[in-house]
Structure to design on (874 residues):
């Protein structure tokens, strides 16, 4: 369960040094777009040495490797996959790539005698991936899906706008697919790092469509994101009341009961528990 | 001899005892100077030296509001060089890189003693190299007026850069080509120097507002230019964009809120740095959210506080020095933007404004496990600043907070012992850095208030360990033991010594 | 190919980074320029020497321009410089 995932360029020592202080639920160390092709080796070594020095991070450690259609991903995986990371983010994800990645990870986990089972966060940034998303969420290890709107809109040959009409459909479709398999639907980053109002609007809208987390490209965006994807006080109060009423009802042997004139049954109870779990995890109660 | 913070005090100086020790002594006041003669208007610095018969061995003072654009100190220094006067004692309220010519005077023995509150640039270099024959004394903003009014620092001639002077000899800082706003740091010099020279480039018939009363003035020197406006006030000072600075600022504001300091009638002071302003901006948001109205903000005033005052978040601004053009503009036009002298700001014996502060946000180049703070030297012992109002506000405010990065270029900011003590740890209540908050264990009340806080509250030793685990252990340097000066606490005692490079 | 042409370099002079250059030589030589030299010279040198030892390199010249890099950064930059040298 995540709310915020912060991108940190993999070849930037000054930013690496402080990656853990900003309070994002996950950090995505980027070996892909943030690293110049001439510095892929440098970034990989830096990440490797950094991760060795920081085995127990307070947040989820995700590494975005280079795509399976490049010459770099194999070396990325060989050097980066270890018990020091939690997840691999795969750009330009396709079902076929995800299956390949699973095989490679299984092999590395065995060779390195790892304790961890590495999770995978695919990025949906090709039109074809949007169509495949129902299959992608079923792939092994997939634990959340990120919408990559910049590449997707360029693949679609449409203009990327702040209002985001052009990504309405992929957002909804990804959210639906993720929720169907109870994994995280992670929204695309908001790229104007100085527009906090725009960010808030964008995050709220993504949430309305079913996204439950958002990636950030600047630490200053995290406050907003963490707030938007945290249950509201009203929701928490409601959920606590449902929990209490459920307890009282079950003492009376009731499976279904009514609260404020509305029926409370199993799905409602589950929804309340989900809200409380999230609120507890992120320190809201 | 070592003082109560265990620092060496050279012979002939009084050792620091405690930050409240001044209360055991009476205020000492020499007579204000009186000027019954007619004020003389002159056009050449040479004439001023002749008229006042400025001699070797005298003490000459300046104020620093024209900051890095100041021509007045340099103009006087040129004339000192030309006449080859020797053994002068300079007492400017601050020395900036633009005052580089003073480095030559020190090397030549024209100037052999210096009193100042803040020092950086080439003059710091030559003093650090041991060229000053006498002593460098680093004062605080409140200590300097105390020292002047008590006669401990007798001034022969005060050269006061004055942006506008009227034909009667009154002065004002808010208008003119070199307008700099409040002239707070010049007031003690004006009242107590044996001779007072206002140096201006803007002579007018009359002034609506007067900061410098003609009754103290001997000479008005009218020149083409007293300073470069570009170096005097900066453009609008801006909030930092650095995510670490913002994170620290955000935590600080939340902390203030949890302690219960963000309430009606609150008063606060921050520096003009980007992180300090960011604290102000987060505090502002909380004030707006909760509909809180503060009483005053003080210190060097920036456009940011001008804006907060205009929005009704503070009743008044108490301004000793304007930091930017917005502050100067407001100083001229806003009746709630009130000037104050350095003495009224920070002199321990003048019922100072700092004593009424709820909160002050301060910086640090180093802090140690005893919460002693250094803003005077870097970790090599090189002088890079000085207290200014640091120790004054830290003592006066109910809660003093240091905001700083825990690590700067691999250097952990928390030390076993700071290189130089500027402000004693007994007056520092809280340290906020990106990896946590440390409360001075002496502040049991604050620890109690924060015991259920979700903020990352740690001990300073824990933060020390954390920083060192990231950076590694820096080697201890063997710094020189040759004393070149002292850091004088606001009460005139010596809190630490300064050493040759 | 003579050993003299074997050279590799990695890193930058941005803050918290370092620029490392390594070249083949007839003896071991480590040259360090650092903004925190007075405090961390020995520690930086140790990282360099340990890494060279790990890679079995004895006759190389390493020069390092440091802007306050942490140990893992120094090690990573040196490793990359070595790989780049050896790729030539």
């Amino acid at each position: 369960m995540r709310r915020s995932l912060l991108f940190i360029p993999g070849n930037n020592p000054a930013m690496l040094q402080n990656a853990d202080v900003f309070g994002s639920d996950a950090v995505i160390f980027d070996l892909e777009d943030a690293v110049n092709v001439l510095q892929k080796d440098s970034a990989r070594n830096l990440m490797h040495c950094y991760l060795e020095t920081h085995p127990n991070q307070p947040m989820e450690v995700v590494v975005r490797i280079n795509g399976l259609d490049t010459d770099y991903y194999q070396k990325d995986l060989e050097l980066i996959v270890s018990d020091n990371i939690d997840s691999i983010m795969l750009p330009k994800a396709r079902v076929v790539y995800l299956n390949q990645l699973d095989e490679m990870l299984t092999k590395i986990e065995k060779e390195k005698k790892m304790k961890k089972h590495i999770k995978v966060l695919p990025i949906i940034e090709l039109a074809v991936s949007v169509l495949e998303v129902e299959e992608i969420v079923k792939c092994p290890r997939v634990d959340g899906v990120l919408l990559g709107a910049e590449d997707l809109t360029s693949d679609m040959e449409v203009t990327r706008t702040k209002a985001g009409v052009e990504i309405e459909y992929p957002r909804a479709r990804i959210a639906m697919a993720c929720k169907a398999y109870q994994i995280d639907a992670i929204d695309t980053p908001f790229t104007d790092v100085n527009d906090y109002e725009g960010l808030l609007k964008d995050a709220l809208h993504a949430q309305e469509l079913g996204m439950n987390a958002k990636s950030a490209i600047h630490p200053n965006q995290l406050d907003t994101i963490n707030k938007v994807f945290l249950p509201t006080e009203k929701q928490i109060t409601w959920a606590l009341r449902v929990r209490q009423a459920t307890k009282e009802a079950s003492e009376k042997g009731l499976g279904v009961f009514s609260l404020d004139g509305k029926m409370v049954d199993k799905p409602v109870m589950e929804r309340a528990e989900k809200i409380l779990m999230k609120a507890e995890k992120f320190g809201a109660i | 001899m070592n003082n109560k913070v265990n620092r060496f005090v050279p012979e002939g100086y009084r050792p620091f005892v405690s930050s409240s020790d001044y209360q055991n002594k009476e205020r000492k006041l020499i007579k204000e100077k009186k000027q019954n003669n007619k004020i003389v208007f002159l056009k050449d610095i040479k004439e001023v030296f002749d008229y006042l018969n400025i001699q070797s061995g005298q003490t000459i003072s300046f104020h620093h509001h024209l900051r890095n654009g100041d021509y007045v100190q340099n103009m006087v220094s040129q004339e000192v060089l030309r006449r080859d006067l020797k053994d002068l004692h300079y007492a400017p309220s601050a020395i900036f890189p633009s005052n580089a010519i003073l480095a030559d005077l020190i090397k030549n023995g024209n100037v052999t003693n210096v009193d100042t509150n803040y020092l950086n640039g080439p003059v710091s270099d030559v003093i650090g190299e041991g060229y000053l024959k006498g002593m460098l004394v680093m004062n605080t903003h409140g200590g300097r007026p105390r020292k002047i009014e008590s006669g401990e620092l007798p001034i022969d001639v005060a050269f006061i850069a004055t942006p506008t002077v009227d034909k009667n000899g009154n002065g004002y800082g808010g208008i003119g080509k070199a307008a700099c706003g409040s002239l707070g740091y010049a007031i003690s010099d004006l009242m107590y120097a044996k001779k007072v020279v206002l140096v201006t480039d803007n002579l007018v018939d009359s002034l609506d507002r007067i900061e410098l009363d003609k009754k103290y003035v001997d000479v008005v020197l009218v020149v083409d230019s007293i300073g470069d406006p570009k170096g005097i006030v900066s453009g609008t000072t801006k909030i930092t964009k650095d995510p670490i600075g913002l994170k620290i600022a955000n935590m600080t504001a939340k902390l203030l809120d949890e302690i219960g300091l963000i309430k009606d009638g609150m008063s606060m002071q921050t520096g003009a740095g980007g992180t300090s302003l960011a604290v102000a901006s987060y505090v502002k948001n909380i004030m707006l959210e909760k509909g809180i109205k503060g009483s005053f903000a003080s210190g060097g005033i920036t456009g940011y506080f001008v804006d907060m005052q205009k929005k009704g978040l503070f009743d008044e601004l108490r301004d000793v020095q304007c930091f930017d053009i917005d502050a100067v503009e407001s100083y001229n036009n806003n009746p709630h933007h009130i000037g104050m002298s350095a003495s009224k700001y920070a002199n321990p014996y003048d019922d100072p404004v700092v004593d009424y502060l709820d909160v002050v946000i301060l910086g640090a180049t180093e802090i140690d496990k005893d919460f002693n703070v250094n803003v005077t030297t870097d970790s090599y012992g090189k002088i890079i600043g000085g207290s200014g109002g640091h120790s004054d506000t830290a003592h006066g405010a109910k809660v003093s907070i240091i905001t700083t990065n825990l690590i700067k270029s691999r250097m952990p900011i928390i030390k076993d012992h700071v290189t130089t003590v500027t402000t004693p740890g007994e007056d520092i209540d809280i340290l906020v850095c990106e990896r946590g908050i440390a409360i001075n264990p002496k502040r049991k009340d604050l620890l109690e208030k924060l015991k259920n806080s979700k903020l990352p509250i740690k001990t300073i030793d824990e933060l020390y360990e954390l920083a060192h685990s990231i950076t590694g252990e820096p080697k201890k340097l063997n710094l020189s033991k040759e004393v070149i000066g002292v850091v004088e606490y606001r009460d005139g005692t010596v809190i630490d010594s300064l050493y040759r490079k | 190919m003579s050993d003299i042409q074997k050279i590799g370099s990695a890193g930058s002079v941005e803050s918290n980074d370092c620029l490392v250059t390594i070249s083949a030589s007839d003896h071991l030589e480590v040259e360090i320029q650092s903004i925190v030299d007075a405090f961390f010279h020995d520690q930086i040198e140790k990282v360099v020497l340990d890494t060279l030892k790990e890679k079995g390199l004895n006759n190389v010249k390493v020069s390092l321009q440091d802007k306050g890099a942490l140990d893992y950064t120094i090690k990573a930059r040196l490793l990359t410089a070595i790989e780049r040298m050896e790729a030539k």
Observations:
- The longest strand of chain B covers residues 314-322.
